[in-house]
Records
---
Amino acid sequence: MSDPVLATHGLMKSFGALVATDDVSIDLRPGEIHAIIGPNGAGKSTLISQISGGLASDAGRVEIMGQDVTALSTAARARAGLGRTFQISALAMEDTVFENVLLGVIGATAGAWAMFSPVARNRALAERAMAALDQVGLANAKDTRCADLSHGQRRQVEVAVALTLAPKAFVMDEPMAGLGAEGSKALTGFLDGLRSEAPILLVEHDMDAVFALADRISVLVNGQVIVTGTVAEIRSSDAVREAYLGAAP
Amino acid sequence: MKNTILASAAAALLAAPALAEVKVGMITTLSGGGAGLGIDVRDGFMLAIQQSGRDDIEVVIEDDQRKPDIAVQLADKMVQAEKVDVLTGIIWSNLAMAVVPSVTAQGKFYLSPNAGPSPLAGQGCHPNYFNVAWQNDNLHEAAGAYANTASYGNSFILAPNYPAGTDALTGYKRTFEGGIASEVYTQLGQTDYAAEIAQIRASDADSVYFFLPGGMGISFLKQYADSGVDLPIVGPAFSFDQGILQAVGDAALGVVNTSQWNKDIDNPTNAAFVESFQEAYGRLPSLYASQGFDTANLLISAIEAADVTDADAFRDALRAANFDSTRGDFAFGPNHHPVQTIYAREVIKEGDVFTNKIIGTALENHSDAYAADCKM
Amino acid sequence: MIPERAINAAVICGLLAVPIWAVMADEIFTITLTTRAVILALAAVGLNIALGIGGLVSFGHAVFFGLGGYAMGILAFHAQTFTPLDLGLVSVNGTKSMPVIWVVATAVSALAAWVIGLLSLRTTGVYFIMITLAFGQMFFYFTISWSAYGGEDGMSIYVRNGFPGLNTLVPIQFFGLCFAALCLALLLQWRLRGSAFGLALNAARQTPERVETVGLNPMRLKLLAFVISGAITGLAGALFADLNRFVSPTMFSWQLSGELIILIIIGGVGRLMGPVIGAAIFVALEHWLGGLTDFWHVWLGAILLLIVLFGRGGVIGLLTGKAGPHV
Amino acid sequence: MSTVLIIEQVLNGLQFGVMLFLMAAGLTLIFGVMGLINLAHGSLYMVGAFAAAWVAGATGSFLLALAAALAAAAAAGALIEVLVIRRLYKAAHLDQVLATFALILIFSEGTRYVFGSFPLFLDIPAYLSGPVTLPGGIQYPFYRLVLIGVGCVVALGLWWLTARTRVGIQIRAGENDREMIAALGVDISKLYTLVFAIGAALAGLAGALVGAIQSVQVGMGEPVLILAFVVIVIGGIGSIRGAFIGALLVGLTDTLGGIFLPELFKLFMESGAATQTGSALAAMAAYILMGIVLIWRPTGLFGARS
């Protein structure tokens, strides 16, 4: 077993009396897709925010490639190798697809302080952006404004932006949300191939996608990981059944 | 606002060989909060022009909105586009400071119908600048002198925290021989004076001197009257003017204030002015109207004596001040500011209308404290 | 619909043509008026970088305008009175040289923008609008009671400051200087908008989370934009002071901050030429409406209302048929 | 400085704060429910004062004048809501700022057109004028005590309105979720007009009450408007409770700052300079307070955490 790319150790977060995440320790190994599932309100979104740096944890640690990033900002964690996509698309809607992906390249090359040279004409940067767009199959739509894209296409742009960062690990928050059956299927195929780039921590409601993609699954209930295992183990777990369907009579 | 008024156009048909036409630029406040003062100056000025029946004076009037940068821009326009010979009209000291040095430096004449900031009376004086109203300190000095004759021994004095405010308190202290119980600076534009009135109540003063022009004075007087504090108040005419007295109401009754003009000054020019102003505009003239009227008459007297293109002769004609002032005697001191008598007046009610009545003389033939600094 | 480039070219040509015509026709005041529009446009170009690209609705940009003005006023005051300016540790002489004044004005404004930005950027939305307004009011009240430099009366500088090789007292030459400054600022804004920084800043306005997840710090982007913005507006303040040969606390007033925002909205938020068109229209309205009636503010208000209600995207939005960025 | 004076100054601060609250309550209500920045709120204050002065002049009755102020400001508020504001709810903050700024211009110059350029007369009625003696021998103007009372009654009334009535429930629902109240079958545009009119009426009431001890003139609304914004930002935009606390804080800071800062500076400065420096700082005090609060809590004391 190789060292994990991304790991959490005993993450805690509570909002007043509500405990959102409680002692969550999970890891993400090279080449795998690790899915996090759980009922609504289980603390999945909180966990994602804690990992990506949007929320400060009450206790616990986050490590990327063995480096403790708990005290780092979102931006610093991104530079450390965390590529994140959002549940509700966080794209610059007024800008074109190309410009959004270019933003990722700028972030990856830390070149946002160049203030006078036209960035769109920088061939090296443009090529990296186009490569990412090619990879997600959106090269044709590069001059479309994001506001005019379909849901599925926006997901693809999200992934393309994350790709430009050449991340050590992807963290994806419900990428299938809002996609039709066709869209989910296409994206599932794409993510399947993506694991060779970097492992994916996948929070997802779409069980077909999860069961098709995941190497391992962790089930989060009331802020706690009640079980982690392979697809088969999860399918047969009584604890999971209980959490989703209520205790057996 | 632009009004090009050719006084008495019909007279132009008569073939009287007039001197060169004189163009006057009036920059004054005609919109916004302080518009009342500018309107009075304009109306007084235009009344005198009309009464003169002259067809050779053209007056261009513009509204400065009480903004210094607009005033400067208008002054540029008057000089560059309208090519006026004489400027006048500015109400506020800060606007005057912005405009006067620059236009006099460009060789134009400026006749001030209201503002008289101290720098322009002292080191910054200029041969082409004539103040027809007063140096800013004058009415305050007169108030100090009145306080002496009323044998006040200890005054509580207050003014807004801006240059004219500090000048006011300095002016009062210059002539007042009693002690100062406390000296308070309020915020410019402040509308609530409860805190200051409480300080007055707690002090051991036997009199109150305040300089709060415009709406500030209205607020102070109303609140003071309601507070139950009954120390006598003295102020300059600015808070007791015809335009705002009606808004103060009973609260102002009996208060003594100092002014170089009042509608009951007994001379034929003044009587005619008060009557014709009321006839023309349907209201009693104010201090500002009288200053506008005097400014126009000074100008006319100079035009009659000299050609405006001959700057030296025209300046001498202005300096002679050979006109009938509504104030009676009028003369310029060496720094082109008035040497004049300043009266103490009391607020009274005539029928339904609040107005002032002269009760005595505060300072006789008074000049100003800065004339010695003026080298011209 | 007209392409934006054609509009931009027409605006620049118009701005040049008017004063040239004025020189031929000996209408000197028209040059002064155009210069005023150019300087206000410069101030608004500064604000537009923070507001239009970065989405920072600053209701306190008069601070920088005023600081630029006072930098000019104080330096020239000490030069014309031959008194040294005491800065505590060192004392320096005043100056009547425009280039020196401009450097000081931009530097002081940039420094102030850095401090104000650092504190204000902790807040967003309406809170940001209000905290910048609060800083404006602080400076306003401070200068009103700062008697050393004239307090509310302000300061008159009797002769316009000099620029090597030019006679700035000639209106058309001073106009040329201001026009050159505006062109430089426009060039800067244009290059900025197309640069990596501009792209990141524009994204930070729309979606700060995204900018963070690609490893950039949106706060620093916005802060830098605010500093550049303040510096340009500060330069405009110094030029404005020289146009009027006068500075006063009204340069710090909240009405002025509001006017700068209005100029941008009239022309088109975030558009390169938005502030220029806005300033030209505003100065023209002020001048012509003021000549028509005593109560011209009513008509100005009505026109502004019509622009908001029916002209989304300002004049440029109207002409190009494209909505501008959403702030 | 005697205790009596300090108590009197605290009362003054409270009275100022309570009047600010009348302005701020309407602003914060309108922002909370409709998300609108209304710069023209100061104009509604002015409308109230002018209506009161006009009716008081015509009838001599202060109560009728107050009623007129409420009615005129509410009517003006409803009118601009229907004609202008309604089109701006979905617009960017910038558009709202510009449109309501335009309304200020129209109201101010329109009022000057109708009533002329000189201040109007409005006075305290005889039965409310003069000082009363409070326990401890403090002489205090009766009218100002009445103002404090009226302000507190309005604050209680607003609390009752939002917490206990059907309209209040709708208003609170509207703050949280517009679709929700539409789903409840509430006519949202009527609700908005109502809230706007209530806010306007409060501003008008403040204008009339304050106009009686100040100067009723064009432009009287703007200084109060800016301070009212300071109040709601300190309190947290949308929170009535925040507006009340914020108003009292600003009222007390402004009043007590004006008194104590010059005294403080006199301890180590020459008297004249101390008074000037102290006054200058006092003028900035409310804004400094707001800056500190926002740096400490970026959404105000009672604002929703984002």
---
Amino acid sequence: MPTMILKRLAMAIPSLIGVVIVTFLLTRALPGDPAAYFAGPAATPQAIQEVRVKLGLDRPLIEQFGSYVLDLVHGNLGTSLTTGQPVAQELRNRLPASAELTLLGLLVSIVIAVPLGILAATKPNSLLDHACRVVSTAGVSLPVFFTGLILVYVFYYLLGWAPAPLGRLDVFFTEPPHVTGFYLIDSLIARDPETFLAALKQLILPALTLAIFSLAPIARMTRASMLAVLSSDFVRTARASGLSSFTVIITYAFRNAMLPVITTLGMVFSFLLGANVLVEKVFAWPGIGSYAVEALLASDFAPVQGFVLTMAVMYVMLNLLIDVLYGVVDPRVRLDA
Amino acid sequence: MTVLLDVEQVSKQFPAGGGLGPLARFKRRLSGGPNLLPKVYAVDDVSFVINKGETVGLVGESGCGKSSLVRTLTRLLDVTGGSIKLGDRELSLKPSRVFARDRDRARIQMVFQDAGESVNPRFTAFDAISDPLRRLRKLRGKTLKERVETVASQCGLPLQLLTRFPHQLSGGQRARVGIARAIAVGPDLLVLDEPTAALDVSVQVVILQLLQQLKREFGMSYLFVSHDLSVVRLLCDRVLVMYLGKIVESGPAAEVFQHPLHPYTQALVAAVPRLHDDGVERLRLSGEPRSPIDPDPNVCRFYGRCPRGTEACKTTMPALRSFGARQVACHFAEEFLPQVKSAS
Amino acid sequence: MTDIAAAPPRESALAALYKHSRYIIGENPVTGFAFALFVLIVLAAILGPHIVPYDPLQSDTTQALKPPSAHHWFGTDQIGRDVFSRVVVATRLDFFIAVASVVLVFLMGGLAGVAAGFFGGWTDRIVGRIADTIMAFPLFVLAMGIVAALGNTVQNIIIATAIVNFPLYARIARSEANIRREAGFVEAARLSGNSDWRILAFQILPNVFPILVVQMSLTMGYAILNAAGLSFIGLGVRPPTPEWGIMVAEGAAFMVAGEWWNAFFPGAALMVAVFCFNLLGDGLRDMVDPRRRT
Amino acid sequence: MISAPALSVEGLCVEFRTRGGIVRALDNVSFSVEKGETIALVGESGSGKSVTAYAVMGILDPAGRVTGGRAMFGGLDLLSATPSQIAEVRGRDIAMIFQNPRTALNPIRPVGRQIADVLIRHGNVPRNKAQAQAVEMLRAVGITDPVRRAKAYPFEMSGGMCQRVMIAIALAAKPSLLIADEPTTGLDVTTQAVIMDLVNDLAKELGMATIFITHDLALAGQRSARIVVMHAGHVVENAPTREIFEHPRHPYTSELIAATPDSAASLDELASIPGSLPDLRRADLPPCRYSERCPRKIDVCAQPLPQSTSGSGHIVACWNPLPEKALLTPTESAA
């Protein structure tokens, strides 16, 4: 098992190198001149040139890349021109907000999608089966930000059940003492049910938006792979051996059907991390997504670089986790490595 | 009997286990091990001859290297070593990648086992049969259409089926398309890779009789690959028996099946279910075949499963020795010889 | 199981496809409905600007933020422009973005994947390395980065969508080509004197193409969502050009205050279009390969 | 002492709804197997031999429906039994082994555990002892080093070994009836011989009735006491093995014997059966589905098929069968 993890890690390194290079090139090509922006609107060309030298933007690209990598190694992601704060610090503060939202959204969608997929596959052409198909096709077609807006309009504006889409916590509540940065967990640790409930109410709509968006691919893949496995030879043998239907469907069929579902999770994560940016804008969520969008609009390349890098590293680590999970479930992968 | 195909010490090796990654190879070199990658010896020093107009059977179980040998003979794969001479032309010189354009390409053709899978699903029967004629004989238009129709009817394929796709044809009809395509360009040698294995008994008979009739009509030579001994007995003049990449026995088909000399052939012949079972105690093979990866060159490949395995078999690889028209690779072949002399 | 030996009556290739597709549409009304919707969208894209009641760009502050009425079926936006006209006219731009990105990604990812799958060796390793690097980024984040770097013109949105989908197409095309590389009919083609390139072009591609077509229709849906998402965060199409994403973005602020129609109708149009492409994709998949029914 | 047969199938009819119409796969199929007896269901592809087994075991593909007949197993009619009744019988009293052993086993579960699952479910073996007993089962089917092999996965084993595991799974609960659906078709002929010996020995040891389904007439003849020949969903002939080879009475059976390569000295002697399997979706299927290809067809063949049984239990469904003890056609007598 450990050799497999080492091997997967070794394979992740080239991707990470690729990520660093691409983020560097991308942000260097940002339109607009950061030096001019930093020097202020009334600055003389001479002052702008001074700032450019200070920022080291005049040196050849390779040298800039060298110093960029050096900073990276020291965990220094540069400072944001708009907020003046070190990017690494801001990302660390805001990451829990995005992570809590994304993970809750994913949890909700898995809890709904996987059983739906299994039931739809075990009862073909039943009402449930058609429901699963409609939900998965509709879910994929719903633009994330549009779903968010509709949910806000209906549950906040019309029914008033949900709180105003203005950030992570209602104005009346104070942030729970920082342990993990996840309000739900921190408030539980602090045994503060009111804050927990308040944070949960704020989380429901954005998490639901993300869940609806990621529900579709998971349900669709679970149903498809369950259908394929249920018609396979070894399930027929299991049925012919008179094993209980639970054993046949869950222990035999679902465990095999889980493999393609786990690989789909990689793709779903990628969608989720992307959709996160949009949902944060709709719900004014103080996560790293909205942080990056503001920086992008101001052509402030340091935060954008930091954001894209963090997202990519997180995504590569998640893929690594998925590969390891795959190895746990499927001995063929574990024994080949 | 003039020799059509002369196969001389042909061997074919594949990297084992999909080949080691660069990292593993580097580690191997660090630890002083040989830089050689582990190899599967699919075909190991095989020599035989096919005469003009002869039908030679190639028999062996899965994993014995039959299809690798056949793919090197038909130049779909390159040989690792040895020579393949067609008439006076040495075929192994030109790499298989470019052999498709070679002027002798048409002289060796092949009929595949699963005719359904060996015809492009988007090709009609007409496209499948005309493709070699277009490429190798440069036929176009009317002459092409006529040639395709004559070959189709020679193979017993009704002309109205020519516009059908493979999934719209029955097993037997697809087999006929595969045969028509192979003989369209008039090859000297036709290699048949288990052409009737996927067919029902009733259809198999028809296809086998068609093959025999085509051979008589066009004077082709056949290399008939099969794991079904009773079919080989009916169709072939001579038979080669392969085991783990080597030829262990060869000779006239009737004689080899009547009085097999090599223990493996004996087990093979004994294992074939007979209609009128004479109830004689059957020889059973135990254990699993040896690994084809980097096999020890001086140990007999059959050692370990052979009922007669002795010290000699473990030290020296038995060479393929000739006894009249028969050949066998076993130290103890003589034991069965007197019986063969008195019987024939 | 029983495989029916007698072959059905003689049919030409086209008749078979027509009968097969009529059967699929017949048996699966949803695909029929999606196909009708698709035709409607194409018509809106072509005829849009000529049949629209109002000029989508002409503003009239006196009529600002009117709810849907007889005059303005979809109401008016914050500077009095007719929402219905803008939604219909926007179809052309969004449809163009979808089709262009899909064609581009097919040419880049699809062909590169087929070559990699068929030839293996170096081509396979290069294409694989490129795909891995792109796959290291979450899709939307990379699209954001590319459009921000190259500037948010329509052309860049298309390029970004194509690059982001490159790994998906390369992977599918590579695996479909790879399993066919050793297929019997490829060996037969070699025996018949076809060079590798001819086999790739005339034998492998025609078999892989339908599978990619299914993926292309699903990606059209994704491309529109992606473009709309970029517009929503201000990186997509610049106002005032009518495009569903930007219209929803502009209408979002008013939605919370109760003027829902401004953002609702472009959003709904967006959903219907993507819904139609996805259903069509499923229908095509049934036609192409009934076994892979999802 | 005429003891009740292990299984008696009477008038079994099965239909499949397909895109091209209703396929009447089985039409009035009847046969029975005595305790401890081994019979063979022989037929070409499309003859319905596997469909018969799947219908009896209740694992027909969803598009299939049993539209008539009974399958009496002990006192229970399997075709009309309740799911819970069938659940008790399947895998405990009736077991089945299949073709392509490697795909017929769970790829991500150690083989020992798969045997243990059946032992726990049917053999009322406590969970902690199941693994040990599974190892014993592996030893009983002739797998060397069973303790290590029990932890192995199907992809690490050869086709022959996977088939032994499947036999171990089937016999875990000591069933009284074993159905073997083309168990050795994909295997090498040497492995096939060893596996068939194993199945015969275990059947004798457990006094188990066995239904052996195959397309290979010679293999059927060598391994079973009685042969049931099927064609296009009909049982055309059912007789003891020696009887059926020496005096085949149904034209299809005699043609099938004459077409088997082993029966002829040269290729020209092999008989070829004209025509092909009729399309089972046709509404106008003649009562005798072989009549369109049958050289012995006479007018009365248009009438519904008779079921005549001669002395030594030789059943044939044909209006114009070959005479009982008549001189055989030249080819048979020479073999």
---
Amino acid sequence: MVRVKSRYLLCEVNVSDRSLLLLLDDRAIAAAVKSVVARIHGDYGAALCSIRFSVKYLNAHTGIVFLRFPKRCYKLLWSALPFITSVESRGQNIPCFLNCLHVGGTIRTCQKFLVRYNTQQLHRMLPKCKNEEERQEVRKAILNCSLTRQNKETFQDETESEEDEEE
Amino acid sequence: MRGDDKKDKSAGYQRVVLKNASPYHYMKVCLVLEDESTKLSAVELKQFIITGLKTLYGEVGAALNFDLLKYDEDTRTAFLRVCSRGLVKLWSSLTLLGFYQNQACAFRVLQVSPFLLALTGNSRELQLD
Amino acid sequence: MSVDLDQTPRSILVWERSSFLDEKNRINSEVEQLHFNYKVSVLLPECSSTPPHLESVLTSFSRFYLVRNLPLHKLLDKEFLETAVYQGSVYGLSYRTRIDEDNCVALMPNGRLVLSLDKDSFQVLGFEGKPSTFGNRTKNRFVVTIDLTDSSMAPGGRGYLRLLTGLTSRLSLQMDFLLSHHPGGGASLQPLLSHCDWSEHTPEISTQSLTHLSCPEPQSCDPHSFLEWLGAVHTDVSSLSENSSSNFLSSLVCPEPKTTLSQALRVSICGLLLPQDVHHLVQELRCYLERSRLECWTSLTVHGFVDSPVSWGDREHGVLRGGENFYTLLMFHDHTYHIHLATGAHDTCPP
Amino acid sequence: MSVFMDLNLSYTTDKNRLQSVIETAAHLGFSTVAINYGFEPTAKKKQEIPTPKPINELIDQLPIVQGRSRPIRVLNRLTVVMSDSSHFRPNAAEYRSFDLLAVQPTTEKLFHSACMLLDIDIICISVTEKLPFFFKRAPVNGAVDRGVVFELCYSAAIRDSTMRRYTIANALSLMESCKGKNVILSSAAEKALELRGPYDITNLGLLFGLSDAEAKEAISSTCRSVLLHAETRKTASGIIYTTKTCSDSTCQQEAPARSELCEAPAAKRPHLAE
């Protein structure tokens, strides 16, 4: 049996006010992507975007999104993503942009990347900590960064993404 | 994509084989409208084609460069030039254009070639009786 | 399967530079190998009316004959073979048939009969052939090449009888046919024509004079740009004279460096044209260049038939979207020339 | 390659319109067309299967194909829209009067049976709605092996932007399973201006995920296989052919095709599983 090949785009939703992130949901992101693809690439893009496209995972806390595109047209669809300027969710227009961090062939590679990426982010945060308590917490978090142990709330995204079976 | 077959400078003989190197493709198209009396200027035709590109390929498609080399208002026949990479897009958007200002229309693509000269000598147009 | 919409079918352009004075020049073979010419167009810069010599060459182009519903086995008629095929060159090409859809037939001057058949007809005919080179995965078209001058194809020979029974009893192909003969003309074709419904045609000449033409420097211009410019001249593209690249409609401009021709003459001739006549025309144009005082040049474009089963020599030819096979000969005052040979997707590289 | 065909021109009672559609098809270079009679059975009341109008009643003189010296060939075809397995009645006498037989399954189960079992020539892929099911590899391969073809119609894509998206999306999903094999492209045109030329359709095929050569086959050689398949459906394994002594007006110019059927190549022999 031939595997249906897909590409997973790991994107970060950047907003000015992080509290707005909590308003996001899968459907809002999917609608935003679909409409921007239809705007940039027209009916043809919209047609491509209706086959096997889905928002695989969204972490409303960290603003991390996994998008799945068919492998043969992901470049075309990806090229429309920078044109997202806002996401309409729960009746509210959230100005934001998507920053693509990684493109992978499976969810697992994306997840591995995300762990590494988050570790880096924590390292960057470390010097900025105000008191010892915070510093300790960040250190602990860094040490806990691994795929086998997912217990920290910070890495909630990983646990959830592993539930998606790979196709 | 440029392959030099052989070069012989001494005898003044030079041969170059250019494969798929044509930068443009040329199309000879004819617009058929339901109401034959409708007048359409060259600018309107180009605008119309751009709308077609925009619906099928969005803003990216609308930005595709093509030239209206020649247009005959009476027969609504036009010569278009498009960069080779955009040929399929332009052609398919012409094919899928079905309405001009709420009246049915169709683009009949008469000939397509990577050489403009080829459009002047199509033996399929030979009429002997 | 891909979603790559940027690709276009293959095209080939061969650019060659040489001199008529060079003994090794291949111009004669290049002209003569394109057997079935549909249209010849000549551009004479700085010329206002057709020079009389040229006019006479053009009017002396051989006549050709259209035979309606020619049963193909008639081409194997003994009398026809003896008076026409064995004596000189016969040019025959099926007319109103399309190479990518129907059965197409060409009778070449060297006595070869080429049948480009669809799968059904090929199987019914039962004659040896090979699959078309352009059919990639599926073999839906077959090419049968028969040398009529071969001993086995002599009337009464084994191959001859097999083909004759194939064409009479199994596959009774009938098609409209364009025929011409060099040097005999209609007289040599009489044995064939006398049995059929036919009409005689003279190649059609048309002349246009052009004024105020921007023109690139032909010696140095890049081949594609030059062909584009020449095409624009032949299709009467008006934006060429305005020459403003910021125009909304068209950004086509004449390649730099450019000059302006105050006048030019465009002559074209259309029909089934023989390479011999084209060759005459080339010679006449050379004389014309010699006679003219100016630093001058002239161009000659020869279009082959789109639906011919062969292009140059016996190279197979087909149609994917357009079956262009043409060459442009650019001649200069100092006997040098440039030749551009162009083919489309279903064609092999020109000689 | 064989001649260009458009195996789906919608039948309308408006005779003039149908004539102009056929004339336009001939003008665009199609050598064979089929007039399609739609039949959509519903559960409530019993409906009559349409009977095809003889071609000479529809059009007085068949137009000459552009650039050729022969007239266009016109066939009849029936398309049954199936929403239940009882809608297709094998061996129905009414089906015999049509040259081509097509079904349009609306559920995955029916699609499966259409691919694997039903004695038909063409499976229509719906292009006016989002696909209610996925194309599984197994039935698609089964259909390819049996010589049944899938049909995509493009005129809906000309009419409306939403339909265009469905057409392209459904076409691409189909190509993923069948890899460009056994696909035909036809118009389903109701009006002359909804028809497009053969080379335009070839180019459109690229959007549907076909290659240049495959797209050209989709309007020529594959259509020819469909006609051969349809002929064999009426015969016993393509070897014996019985005919009532009524002149068949639709086959006037392809006289050799008849005799040659007997020696049709093995690949073109019918795949009658039953």
